[in-house]
Amino acid sequence: MWWGGRGQSFNIAPQKEEPEMGPSGPQSVQGSGMPEPRNPQLGSCLVSGCLPGEQILAWAPGVRKGLEPELPGTLICTNLRVTFQPYGWQRHQETSLSSDYDFALVNIGQLEAVSSLSRVQLHRPGSLLKFIPEEILIHGRDFRLLRVGFEAGGLEPQAFQVTMAISQARAQSSQTQQYSGIALSKTGQSSGSKKPPIPLLETSEDWETERNRQGAKGWRVSLVNERFDVATSLPRYFWVPNRTLDSEVRRAFGHFHQGRGPRLSWHHPGGSDLLRCGGFYTASDPNKEDIRAVESMLQAGHSDVVLVDTMDELPSLADIQLAHLRLRALCLPDSSVSEDKWLSALEGTRWLDYVRSCLRKASDISVLVTSRVRSVVLQERGDRDFNGLLSSLVQLLSAPEARTLFGFQSLVQREWVAAGHPFLTRLGVTGVGEKAPVFLLFLDCVWQLLQQFPAEFEFSEFFLVALHDSVRVPDTLTFLRDNPWERGKQSRQFNSYTQVYTPGYSHPPDGNSINAQLSVWDWDLRYSKEQILQFHNPGYDPEHCQDSWLPRQQPSFMVPGPPSSVWLFSRGALTALNQLCPWRDSPSLLAVSSRWLPRPAISSESLADQEWGLPSHWGACPLPAGLLLPGYLGPQIRLWRRCYLRGRPEVQMGLSAPTITGLQDELSCLQELLKKWTPRISPEDHSNKRDPNPILSQSC
Amino acid sequence: MEHIRTPKVENVRLLDRISPKKAALGTLYLTATHVIFVENAPDTRKETWILHSQISTIEKQATTATGCHLLIRCKNFQLLQLIIPQERDCHDVYISLIRLTRPVKYEELYCFSFNPKLDKEERERGWLLLDLSEEYRRMGLPGEHWQLSDVNRDYRVCDSYPTELYVPKSATAHIILGSSKFRSRRRFPALSYYSKQSHASICRSSQPLSGFSARCLEDEQMLQAIRKANPGSDFVYVVDTRPKLNAMANRAAGKGYENEDNYSNIKFQFIGIENIHVMRNSLQKMLEVCELKSPSMSDFLWGLENSGWLRHIKAIMDAGTFIAKAVAEEGASVLVHCSDGWDRTAQVCSVASLLLDPHYRTLKGFMVLIEKDWISFGHKFNHRYGNLDGDPKEISPVIDQFIECVWQLMEQFPCAFEFNERFLIHIQHHIYSCQFGNFLCNSQKERRELKIQERTYSLWAHLWKNRADYMNPLFRADHSQTQGILRLPTAPCNFMYKFWSGMYNRFEKGLQPRQSVTDYLMAVKEETQQLEEELEALEERLEKIQKVHLNCSKVKSKPSEPSKYSGFSTPDSSAANTPQDYSGNMKSFPSRSPSQGDADSALILTQDNLKSSDPDLSANSDQESGVEDLSCRSPSGGERAPSEDSAKDRDSDEAVFLMA
Asked: What residue in B sits closest to A346 (Cα-Cα)?
């Protein structure tokens, strides 16, 4: 029996690190009944695509369905991924991973085997397939779908084997497992130390550069957490007010949840500062000096301070997780929702409603930041989820720099990766901690902005989809760790941990570091040059907002005394507070906070309309240039079809291909014309300038 | 004029729907044709013009401390909320408008007073832009199996049909007459679309008067003739676009549907599109959702679903797809009918034609399609769109649904259509505006009696003249999508159909995206064209300059020399056309987008001759002055604004004149 001894043949040995193998050949499955690839060409094709340490477990020829036209090729299951290689397609030498054809094992959300008689979902590795599949469907957690049909004619055993292998491999893969060795082969190619495309904010220079770029003169880079002893979830470096000593920082941070005290997120060119911090650690008993330190850090030299209760009016983590699961179920091609009930089912997921509330809140906060010079503090208990989401959205709304490709990637690196958003826990299948795709919710919010302001963003929808999918590809550490400390540990950056760090120290002494410098921003790992070109939004028009607008200036960092006005922003309104910190007189103010107050008026009016001195209607008076105020009424929030409905190619017809090809065609046409003209026009220009002008001046 | 009780009310406030606290203070004017609101704000003095014929309902609401509320709903989905300080004024405005918006005679409609300052010849040329006989020739008619019939000369057989009709050659006058007597309102089967490749055709008619058992030999022969006219197939589809229940109910009234036993070789099919009353209510429900002050996600999605609107759109698309498939893939002819064969039949036939024939996806082809399937075949524009005061139960958004179907298709096939969304929106607007004569009356016969063509202007000529504004920048004539039949997925997926915010929320600026990619692309295209023209001009100049150089070297001092160059004395303007200038243009570009008020009011006023983007003008310009022309054609808002303003002034003069 060819499937006899199945347990043995697919019992995959724990992954052996064999980096010296390099991009070498596959180890064909040990002792299995797997036939050697008959076609030598196919064999070499399989070989060429392998990652270091990757083993091919099973393969079968098949046809990729659901696309127009159907694509014949080979379905391959390895210990790292499932991949479909179309015939004649060669893995690009530089891109060892493919965004089109690869499914990382951790990305597989659902595996279905279909025959004319039955349809089974393979959940556990133990579940035995009782028939020979004619087709298998792999539903990605990233909403992609791989549908491969197998042809009859002697190849059925292979179809069976590959299905079982996928089921097994998936069960054995772990979330933390990474495509190791990929960095090695990668860094081997580009000789020497490669500069990361985006500053990873692992060195103090990166922070210093960014601080200068923002023009945050009143701030400095604090080295107090260089050894992660203030908080492991914080980055090694962060920004604190100039006048605050490191000892004060240490003193103050101890009174915040998990040591995440107030730090600068973004300095508005007009003078306002956007800060983020964790919740007050109410159990602590700070002395007067501690309180003074905390207050001066929150105040950041401004006389006007607004504390923003971040979680107010936003969904909980559990809400988001549930909404995302429902959304995924709804977008499955065979979702049982009847045709007429689609809209209410979509509403039932609540996903769009959560997107809407995030946008509304971000819009309010960005008005707070831009309308007056003040310190705006985002306060969330953990400071690792919604603070990052809101702070990034506010920056996208208020800072044109953040809307460039570079700016956006830096933003994500700073507010999410470096700030310690627990990617692994939130996205993970580890089962530990609270799962919630907060980052994906953020990407959806960004997509909504892109829809509403198509000329304001340098990156395209394609880029957002790429970032969305990267979350499920374990090729770099960016999304595979919960905080910078773990990330650094893994990349052996801190293996000389006991050494005294010196500012400016950046490279680990041994060149042995794996993936130290590779991040999700190394797009050429997974995307071809042509695809990366599509990251650019052809409609981007940076000239749109040149004139810099600044709010009423006030001498900043001049008033050392206590803040003259302290506000709590909650339920879409400002409430005056007596004091910043809750400890002076119990009961604590924030604990009572306004969580139970109703939103004052149920109206769509954002703060912009009410009292902030902004124009009473659009267009007539100039809005602060570069400030985008998003729409968040029901009809304005749309479903991100190109991302969520990818499993249903029929829906994609008008969405991706034609439009993008249309634009691409248009672009290439224009570029060709440009090329044609450049050599022709330049001599003409000369002749124009030299010849007719003098003649003209004579004639005049 | 006698109906206007008060021509002018001051200190009126116009509310902004999204944020009711914002209100613009201004003056309200009533003229014979328009309601005009002029804002007091001195820097803008923004004007809002509403044609009386666009107004669907006027609602006087409870008086509050601030004044009397007046709510004006328009057929193009605009919603005006006015606060008039004096109750008496409000009442006068209300009573005047009630009368003004319900004309009883055709002569009261705007198209009989509208004068775009074209001479008689131009007007006549405008009406000749489209020629239906030309369209039938394009289809390959008359041909081997089809001929032009004069049976309906002077509307003798059917007064809602046109005189020119194509019928199978084998159908004699006797058969046609017999068949017409067996059909509701004598609308016998006639050709709507003919496919040259497959010889299959789409025919249309009304329901047969079959009752429970009646038969008609001639009608059976008629269907036989249609089948025989298509040698490639041995059967005909008969598509009844009504829900089966409705068709059965009609049998009790002596009408009904074809019995498959009586007709040889037909395949009968029901496709359930609901009747005009259901559609009217559905739209009403959807518009209520659109009117919500601050709709939440669930308000919007639930409301949209409960209105059923998208479901109805899907039903029409499904019917169109079915017919297109039958014709293209099975090569079978189809006879389509509903009850009277002028609402659902028109929708379905035109959707099917659009799917089948790329010609209808071009600007001119689309106009022809509406001319053929809607105007000539007697769609009751007057009743459906309430141009004259009439039975409110007759009003229904039939052609609106068709226009939306086209938009849904455009969303799915962005490269397949030569025209853009704006084109559809403007057509919808003018179906209700009564500014042009095209959509007047209920049939060709009535239009001829009214001498529409001699007394009014044609919308098609107007649209064609401004076609530059209606081009889809993504259209590619050589794209694989563009050729042949458009194939919609067969799998059921309701979410393919989307809410058309650009139509139903078109006056809610806050709800629209702030920038339009289409406009951006159009600007790029225009710019490209300008650069090309400029290049050509420059090349020509270069040639001349080289010649001059030769001359110069030969004869150094020639007095006539400078005058030679005065012809192309524009190096400055050409130098200004550098990339900086380009980006400057782009920046100001959004001011032309149709979602903006100015452009819209300009559209309503339509002073063609003042439009600076008129392509005809530039075509006349000779090469030498080409460069100068370019600068005034550039899409910068600054240069356009004055022309639009003057357009307004002139029209307001006219309005005043009319009032006097």
From this structure: B301
Is the pLDDT at A591 greater than 60, yes or no? no
A349 pLDDT band, cuts 50/70/90, is: very high
Taking the Cβ of residue B571 and every Cβ of chain A, the question of whether any pair is shorter than 8 Å is answered with yes
> Is cis: bond before B142, omega within 30 of 0?
yes
The whole-angstrom separation of Cα B32 and Cα B12 is: 20
What does DSSP say about strands B55-64 and B47-51: parallel, antiparallel, or unpaired? unpaired
Q: What's the rounded Cα separation, in Å, for the pair A373 and A583? A: 27
User: Can you tell me the distance from the alpha carbon of B476 to that of B471, in angstroms, rounded to the nearest whole number?
Assistant: 11
Look at A368-377, B419-428, B615-624 and tell me which has the smallest mean pLDDT. B615-624
Q: Which residues are CB-contacts of A193 (< 8 A; sequence separation ≥ 6)?
A: A507, A517
B338 catalytic? Reply is: yes
Residue B77 or A475, more confident: B77
- Residue B78 is encoded by which pair of tokens? 């605009």
Q: Name the more confident of B612 and B454.
A: B454
Per-residue pLDDT tens for B578-610?
A: 333 333 343 333 333 333 333 343 343 333 333
Locate tokens 């079978």: which residue? B332
Give B317-363 as a 3 state SS string.
HHHHHHHHHHHHHHCCEEEEECCCCCCHHHHHHHHHHHHHCHHHHCH
**Confidence band of A617 (pLDDT split at 50, 70, 90):** very low
Complex prediction ipTM = 0.78
Query: Strands B8-15 and B23-30, how do they pair?
Result: antiparallel
Measured CA to CA, the distance from residue A635 to residue A633 in angstroms comes to 6
Runs of H (alpha helix) within B482-556: 501-504, 517-554
Shortest CB distance from A650 goes to which of B24, B491, B548?
B491
The residue annotated as part of the active site, out of B338, B405, B434, B441, is B338
Mutate to test the interface with B, among A68, A346, A347 (most CBs of B within 10 A): A347
Count other C-beta atoms under 10 Å from residue A161's C-beta: 25
- Strands A375-379 and A304-309: what pairing? parallel
- The more confident residue out of B532 and A69 is B532
Contact A634 B569 (CB under 8 A): no
Q: Is omega for the bond preceding A508 within 30 degrees of 0, making it cis?
A: no
Q: Please give the full DSSP string across A441-494, using - where no structure is assigned.
A: HHHHHHHHHHHH-TTS-SB-HHHHHHHHHHTT-TTSSTTT-SSHHHHHHHTTTT
With a cut of 60, say whether residue A653 has pLDDT above it.
Answer: no
For residue A102, the SS3 value is strand
CA–CA dist A264, A281 (Å, integer) = 19
Q: Phi first, then psi: give them for residue B393, nearest 5 degrees.
A: -75, -15
C-alpha span between A112 and A333 (Å, rounded):
12
Tokens describing residue B274: 């609901």
Report CA B595 to chain centroid distance, whole Å.
16
* Entry pTM: 0.81
Give me the percent of chain A exceeding a pLDDT of 90: 28
Rounded to a whole number of angstroms, the distance from the CA of B541 to the nearest CA of chain A is 9
DSSP state of A244: -
Query: According to the model, what pLDDT value does residue B622 have?
Result: 36
Residues of chain B positioned with their CB less than 8 A from the CB of A636: 511
Instruction: Return residues 227-256 of B near A (CB < 8 Å).
Output: none
Predicted pLDDT at A340? 79
